[in-house]
Amino acid sequence: MNARMPTPEGVIRNEATTPLILASLAIAFCVNLLPWQGTALLVRPDFLLIVLIYWCMEEPRRVGSATAFFAGILMDIAEGALTGQNALVYSLSAYLALSFRRRILSFDRGLQVFYVFPILLLGQGVFALQQLIINTPFPGSAYFLRSVLGMLIWPIVCWSLEFPRRQPQKDEIT
Fold it and tell me: Which of 37-46, 97-106, 138-147 has the highest mean pLDDT?
């Protein structure tokens, strides 16, 4: 959505600043690197991917497939994964988010989850396929709970990233 345009909820937002975009991506990157263990690691949503999808839709001229690819390479290096695994998933997801952004942004946050979920699920599927190709055992169907949890936190992530850009409405000004 363009700057100073109302959201489907009727809230007017200012344009996102570069420091806000970089800080949100850095925080999501750090949350991904927290020492998750056991079941929490298995079902942890990919916070960086969720934030990338958000910024690809909200600021497509600033955040796109190249940014997603670079973030994926950084995540591959940080996780010690085969270089390019996260980069491929992030780039593909960013491409899909950019392709469907007008359609997705026409809905409120509650309905957007039904478009974001397939993007997250496809990303998880591509990552699982990459793991199977290199003979890593399949973690089971619980692995795809990451996409479900990512879908559930989508409105929270959107609200937290929109809050700093929110412009007060006339009735809120004292």
Answer: 97-106
Q: Is 2 inside a domain boundary? A: no
Tens-digit pLDDT profile for residues 99-117:
999 999 999 999 999 999 9
Task: Spell 36-60 as b/e; 16+ CB within 10 A means b.
Answer: eeeeeeebbbbbbbbbbbbbbbbbe
- Please report, for the domain that includes residue 38, its CATH number: 1.10.1760
Backbone angles phi, psi at 13, to 5 degrees: -120, 150
| Residue at 135 is within a domain | yes
Q: 17: pLDDT confidence band, cut at 50, 70 and 90?
A: very high
SS3 for 12?
strand
Range of the domain at 151: 18-167
